[in-house]
Structures are given as C-alpha cells and as structure tokens.
Amino acid sequence: MNCIVTAGPTFEPLDDVRRLTNFSTGRLGTELANFLAARGHRVTLLIGETATYAGQRRAQSVKMFSTTADLRARLKAFSGKKVDAIFHAAAVSDFAFGQIYSEKKPGEFTALKAANKISTRQGNLFVELVPTPKIIAELRGWFPQAKIIGWKFEADGTRASVLCAAEKQLADCATDHCVANGPAYGKGFHLVSAAAQKHLASAEKLFAALEKLPRCS
Length: 217
Fold this sequence. Notes:
With 217 residues, the chain is an alpha/beta fold.
C-alpha cells in the first residue's frame, strides 16, 4: 500500500523573522508513519519544518513543508500517482496574514507594505487575518480512488460537539474517515465514518485500526 502521512504544523509569515503557527509537535503523524512503514507499507511522510518531535522518522521518504501553500503544492504534486491512502494529520494553520496597518497616533491607520522585518518604530500594529485554503477539501479531487482519513482536533467544546464536527468534515470534504481527538474530546481517539464510529483508547490501537481501513474497500 502506498501511503502519504502529513504531520506537524504549517506556518504563515508576517515578515522574514515573525510567523503565525499552530501548536503541534508532529509526533502522532510521525509515529503513524513509522507504524505503517514497519508493517511493510510504502510511506511518504510530509512533516512541518517547525515540528519539534525528535523521534526517528522511519518512512521511506520524508519531505518537509513550511506554509499552508507549500503543503498544498506538495500534496497536489502526488495527484496522478498511485496513492492508496492519505492520513492528513497535519495541523494546518487556519489563518494567514492579510493587510498590516500601523497606528502611530490613536485612530490614525497607515497600510504597510511587505518588509523584511517590520520595525517596532511603526507603532502599534493591526493585522488582518484571512482564512487559509482548506487543503482537506481538495484531496478528493486530487486522489479520487484513495482512502482519505482526516483529523478533527478540538480544544473547546464537548465530546459530542467534536464528533459532530468530524461528521461534518466527512460530509463537506468527501473523506472516508475522520479521527477525532483533543482536549474537548478527552482521552483517546474516535474513528468516525459514515457507517460506524469507534472509540480507541490509545495511539497504538488507533494506528492498528487505521492500517486496516484501506484493505476494506
């Protein structure tokens, strides 16, 4: 089975020295890639440059990504190739920077042009945040025959609301399965599909369940 696993965060630059990113170590995706490789699958791990997990990366191919646009381009580059399963665990930034304004005097705003480093002499900064493209919504178009497994990590809400969000991802993005987890969900993981749902108490049990999914087509 030819697999792609995404892991770790994307980032969006404010200037050449400052950036916006998500909290993500990349550990879960890396360990999933290691598990699949150990089971004899051909694995490409796409991992964020700022992922902090220092464990071994045993995937046959490891490629780094930076911004959301970079991850999107790297995934799209695999379209047309034989891909059996995509495990999209990367923590993609929800927002990128739009227009930046300075306020040197109260109520007086000046739009700033892109700079290598925005000087603190510009005064207070007001930054527009614009949504990034939803990569997961494009995967089905690029990989019509692959099993696509998305993630729904939620920090706020209840377990029920997380599962509702996972079900919405399935419907909106035409994915086959969604893994729900995070502080709002609580301990463990929930594997959600249109046909069934299952709680999995540990990462090891999750990996074993995920590895079986592409064989059930």
